[in-house]
Design goal:
It is a single chain. The protein is of the alpha/beta class and about 240 residues long. It has one domain (about 1-240): Metallo-beta-lactamase, Chain A, CATH 3.60.15. It has seven helices and 14 strands. The chain has helices at about 40-45, 60-65, 70-75, 95-105, 165-170, 190-195, 215-220, and strands at about 1-5, 20-25, 30, 55, 85-90, 115-120, 125, 130-135, 140-145, 150-155, 175-180, 205-210, 230, 235-240. The protein has a seven-stranded mixed beta sheet with strand order 6-5-4-3-2-1-14. A seven-stranded mixed beta sheet has the order 7-8-9-10-11-12-13, covered by helices on one side. Helix 7 (about 215-220) links the parallel strand 12 and strand 13 (about 230). The longest helix is centred in the middle third of the chain and has 12 residues, at about 95-105. The two termini are about 15 Å apart. The relative contact order is 0.16. The structure holds zinc ion (2 copies). One zinc ion binds next to helix 2.
């Protein structure tokens, strides 16, 4: 299981790509979230139109989905042939469907099969067991846990973790946690909320989607907490054998 953090930024980060992960095992590649600045990071990553097998959208805030139009338009233009699956919440389908329609406008159809799948009750994505749980956010967001042969990865998406989200994070070898602020805030993760969560021995916790004005303070706060680090655009994690 190989994880690349394409972006660690929040919605309005002046310097960083919107929060997004690319997770690969064998020839299966999952893109998690696709804000407006994510396609450029993918292009810089030397992608081809066939590379991504599946997309997971945590929630329909623009910084997590607006890049879909550009990415699907790219796949259409470069004549992708293999099918693509997109996991999203059923209640958010209409917003995403419009982004998909715009990708081929004024034509209809992308030239490849697109399968929309509900994220509420999913049990697997590609080679991994998968589960989701809602967080507390201004737009319904679902946190994602993926378990492969080697490791368990958790991605919070935006929002304050639910009790189930905290359990998922506690099982993870690698946990990506939204940490917008230092102090507890409605609808967002914060250092105050994340610092004392239960953690698996040897696990790594990556804080991301940090308000630019809070980043220095968060960097300072994690000093002395070896399991925590800050998300960085382009940071890679190899998880082969962490469970061995
Ligand atoms: Zn966001
Ligand atoms: Zn959001």
């Amino acid at each position: 299981m190989h994880v690349k953090m394409l972006g660690c930024g929040d919605a309005y980060d002046p310097k960083r790509t919107n929060s997004s992960l690319l997770i690969r095992e064998g020839d299966f590649e999952l893109l998690i979230d696709c804000g407006p600045t994510v396609p450029q990071a993918l292009f810089a990553n030397a992608m081809t139109a066939e590379d991504i097998s599946c997309i997971y959208i945590s929630h329909c805030h623009p910084d997590h989905c607006l890049g879909l139009t550009t990415l699907l338009n790219y796949m259409k233009s470069f004549k992708r042939s293999k099918p693509l699956s997109i996991f999203r919440q059923a209640s958010q389908h209409q917003a995403l469907y419009r982004l998909m329609e715009f990708a081929s406008w004024p034509e209809k159809g992308l030239g490849f099969e697109l399968y929309w799948k509900d994220s509420e009750n999913l049990t697997e994505i590609g080679p991994w067991r998968a589960e989701t749980t809602p967080s507390s956010h201004s737009v319904p967001n679902r946190s994602l846990q993926l378990t492969g042969q080697d490791a368990t990865v958790f991605y919070s998406g935006d929002g304050l973790l639910s009790p189930q989200g905290e359990r998922f994070a506690a099982q993870a070898d690698l946990a990506f946690i939204e940490c917008e602020y230092m102090t507890a805030a409605n609808g967002h993760g914060s250092w105050a909320d994340v610092k004392d969560l239960q953690k698996k021995a040897g696990s790594r916790w990556v804080l991301y989607h940090i308000d630019d004005a809070s980043r220095l303070a968060v960097a300072d706060a994690i000093t002395g907490h070896a399991e925590f680090s800050l998300g960085e655009d382009g940071r890679e994690f190899d998880l082969a054998g962490v469970m061995a």
